[in-house]
Amino acid sequence: MTAASPTHAAPARLTRLAWASVGIAALVLGLKWAAYLLTGSLALYSDALESIINVAAAAAALIALRVAARPADDNHPFGHSKAEYFSAVLEGVLIVLAALAILWEAGPQLLSPAPVELPPLGLALSVVASVINGVWASRLLAAGRQHRSPALLADGKHLMSDVVSSVGVLAGVGLARLTGWHVLDPLLACLVALNILWSGWHLMRDSVGGLMDAGADAGTQARIRELVAEHAAGALEAHDLLTRTAGRLTFIEFHLVVPGSMTVAEAHAICDRLEEVLEAEVEGARVTIHVEPQDQAKHSGVLVL
């Protein structure tokens, strides 16, 4: 028996956040690019280059959220929620490409470093851009966790790594200017690139796990077992619990063993009760229950007392 509730569309709030991300990413890119032009710093150039990726990633997240909001259809009976994982994987790939471009640019300058100019306006623009990124990254991470959105979480994690890189760049560029060690500028650009690579790898790893139908986390699975045990009165046991996550959705399947003398209507009532409580307690739950007679009992898995 399967829960018949329709696939929920992505909240309008997430779409608004995605639109805002595109605008903010474009603003930050403009500020960082201006800072690079004013200073000529390779480290600030690497920081600005990553912001180009931020704009592309924000646009990809917006598209993914719109696709994920589409209801299930004949070709996609389980909905379109996995579209968000493609956005996160794409963001990871773009991050890696940006890091390689930075390393390509910084390599020659490690051997022949050039002096760095530090006009106050250039530094101020970079600081303002980093503050904006930090505030917005926190906002995206909070919304992504609340709504279990892989696209927003990927965007927020990327922006937060960008903030860490920017703080390191600003500190290093200042040291290069004060100490006269001009090699610090391309060296910091390389360190930024390595940090970006690390961030990109984690984004791709986590997103590929979603595309590969990773199961729900251990805490969620334990909660599902508790709920089944508490609300399956009349049944004998439940076993073969399977879960998989797809964006905001959690698909839950298990076998429910009932007495052989129980009527279909009585078994159906137990399933309805379980579906209702699981959907209320597990956000985005989609429940499938296979009812079996008592001679199929395994005496293992989720035992109903």
Automatic annotation (TrEMBL):
The family database entries (NCBIfam families) matched by this protein are listed as: CDF
List this protein's GO terms for biological process: intracellular zinc ion homeostasis
| Entry protein name | Cation diffusion facilitator family transporter
Is-annotated flag, keyword Glycosyltransferase?
A: no
The protein's location, in the record's own words, is:
Membrane
Q: Which UniProt keywords apply?
A: Membrane, Transmembrane, Transmembrane helix, Transport
Q: Name one GO molecular function term.
A: cadmium ion transmembrane transporter activity
Q: Where are the transmembrane segments?
A: 17-36, 42-65, 85-104, 124-142
Instruction: State the membrane topology.
Output: Multi-pass membrane protein
Tell me what organism the protein belongs to.
Deinococcus proteolyticus (strain ATCC 35074 / DSM 20540 / JCM 6276 / NBRC 101906 / NCIMB 13154 / VKM Ac-1939 / CCM 2703 / MRP)
**Can you give the residue ranges of the Cation efflux protein cytoplasmic domain?**
220-293
Q: Which residues form the Cation efflux protein transmembrane domain?
A: 19-212
Q: What is its main location?
A: membrane
The Gene Ontology CC terms held by the record are: plasma membrane
| InterPro entries named in the record | Cation_efflux, Cation_efflux_CTD, Cation_efflux_CTD_sf, Cation_efflux_TM, Cation_efflux_TMD_sf, CDF_Transporter
Q: Which family does it belong to?
A: Belongs to the cation diffusion facilitator (CDF) transporter (TC 2.A.4) family.
Q: Which domain of life is it from?
A: Bacteria
Q: Which SUPFAM superfamilies match?
A: Cation efflux protein cytoplasmic domain-like, Cation efflux protein transmembrane domain-like
